Amino acid sequence: MHLVHQLLTLAREEAQTNARFELVSLRRLCERVVADISLLAEAKQIDLGLECAPSAQPDDSFKVNVEPAGIEILLTNLIDNAIRYTPNGGKVDVVIKREDGLVSVGVSDSGPGLPDEECERVFDRFYRSTGTKEQGSGLGLAIALKVAQRHHATLRMKNHAGRPGLNVTLSGLRSESQP
């Protein structure tokens, strides 16, 4: 059933020609996704957190001009992957920040990481990392990449330096102050 859902989502993302963009709070969207997926984290005793980088405005909700349903799918896939590949008792952090007038969100985990040569390949359809025991369709990150591309944003994955884990960052989301 999950595979069918992922295939339908990928087909919709690939067929998407004119998405309806609107100004939304990325902070609120992340809060909702983290709350929705928190039971999966609790089942594995994973510390799942959301943090917003300090901002010039204390009430900054990190408003961005996006297609909300697509960004929600992207965030759900990134956080779900981080939780699934992080061992019991690990940590997953979601961090929102502003960079050069644009907004980014990163998902960082304390899982085993990936061989460097696989960090780009994981965005290919049906790609599954060698040696993984986790079940999955190999479509979640391909879907996330399609959503990022539709938003003219970038999605990058890299291992943490000197410690286990991965960081996946969606960057280049246009903030409300951008023309």
TrEMBL record:
It is found in: Membrane. Keywords: ATP-binding, Kinase, Membrane, Nucleotide-binding, Phosphoprotein, Transferase, Transmembrane, Transmembrane helix, Two-component regulatory system. Its main location: membrane. It catalyses: ATP + protein L-histidine = ADP + protein N-phospho-L-histidine. GO terms for cellular component: plasma membrane. PROSITE patterns: HIS_KIN. It is a multi-pass membrane protein. Gene3D superfamilies: Histidine kinase-like ATPase, C-terminal domain. Pfam families: HATPase_c. It comes from the Bacteria. InterPro entries: HATPase_C_sf (IPR036890), HATPase_dom (IPR003594), His_kinase_dom (IPR005467), Sig_transdc_His_kin-like_C (IPR004358), TCS_sensor_his_kinase (IPR050428). The keyword ATP-binding applies. One of its GO terms (molecular function) is protein histidine kinase activity. Residues 1-176 form the Histidine kinase domain. GO terms for biological process: phosphorelay signal transduction system. Its EC number is 2.7.13.3. This is histidine kinase. It comes from Paraburkholderia azotifigens. The lineage of its organism: Bacteria, Pseudomonadati, Pseudomonadota, Betaproteobacteria, Burkholderiales.
